[in-house]
Amino acid sequence: MAKNTQPVLKRCKTLGLSPAVLGYSKETKRNPKQMRRKQSEYAIQLNEKQKVKFIYGVLEKQFRAYYEKAERKQGITGEILLQELERRLDNVVFRMGFASTRREARQLVNHAHFTVNGKKVNIPSFQVKPGDVIAVREKSRTTPKFKALMEELGKKPTPKWMDKAAESFEGKIIAMPARDDIDYEVAEHLIVEFYSK
Question: What mean pLDDT comes out for the span 66-79?
């Protein structure tokens, strides 16, 4: 399985992204003396695509497949693409507060700590849908990791498209994610332009 091993903070600085979007607390400082030359239209589009790929931890082949799937559906392609990425199980685990970063969420899903509708799922790219119940497996609830997590669980806000009880180890998808649920700046039309050339 291919894996992105780039340093997170360095990549965030390159893409002009706040590490808080990824769940990291450290902020990167920009050097005002460091001037960058004007970017071409292609470079701006590429940068936007790279930013979204990096946030969700998706590599090119899989990202392209998400784009093609979004393009086939009716509606605004860019918004559908973001919706598909938001519905990934690793992202949902992160959004519900069961992990502090998406990378950690992906690892926890890979290690089969979660169930979807009572069935064990260990595929980070698994697509959740409205009505799905995501829960921490009974066996995993007693681990020190999840015990410590229960103390932090109520502090993280949950997006309105999912419902999570702070005391329990489970949450439910109540709707499809909307465009205004995206908590970082992204110009998805640039990604569509990049791929439609």
Answer: 93
For residue 30, the cross-strand partners are none
Per the CB < 8 A criterion, the answer to whether 114 and 135 are in contact is: yes
The residues, any chain, with a CB within 8 Å of residue 171's CB and separated by 6 or more, are 92, 96, 133, 134, 135, 158, 162, 163, 164, 165
**Range in 66-75, 125-134, 153-162 with the lowest mean pLDDT:** 153-162
**Order of all β-strands in the sheet with 114-116:** 119-121, 114-116, 133-136, 170-173, 162-164
CB 76 within 8 A of CB 83: no
Q: Three-state SS for 25?
A: coil
DSSP element (H, E) containing 134:
strand 133-136
Q: What is the mean pLDDT of residues 119-148?
A: 90
Cα angle, residue 133 at apex, residues 153 and 128 outer, rounded to 5° = 105
Nearest to 165 by CA among 153, 152, 181: 153
Which residues lie below 8 Å from residue 25, measured CB to CB, with a gap of 6+?
19
Encode 163-182: b = buried (16+ Cβ within 10 Å), e = exposed: ebeeeebebbbeeebeeebb
Which H helix or E strand runs over 194?
helix 188-195
Q: Quote the CA–CA distance of 190 and 194 in Å, as a whole number.
A: 6
